[in-house]
Amino acid sequence: MAQVAGNKDGQELILPYDRLSRLNEALANWLVLRWDGTAASTYEKLRSLRLGIGTMDLRIASIVLATNAILLSRNLNDFARVPDLKVEDWLS
Are residues 25 and 49 in the same domain? Predict the structure, then answer.
């Protein structure tokens, strides 16, 4: 988006817009888990435990717990602190 926003030359926008289009096509096939009431309630419970992890990671964990999913992350140190969270690192 920075390449698109900062460029006035129409010809130079072809490659950045092509990349953006391909990214949108790839992401269209992903399942995106939503923030909902169950995730919000789970977040409040986890926040009260003062687990010492960041707000965004806590929100991610809440969504995963609320949907009974498995979180794929390299950040095992922080996410291991969340009770009952199933987390796997497929990159190591």
Answer: no
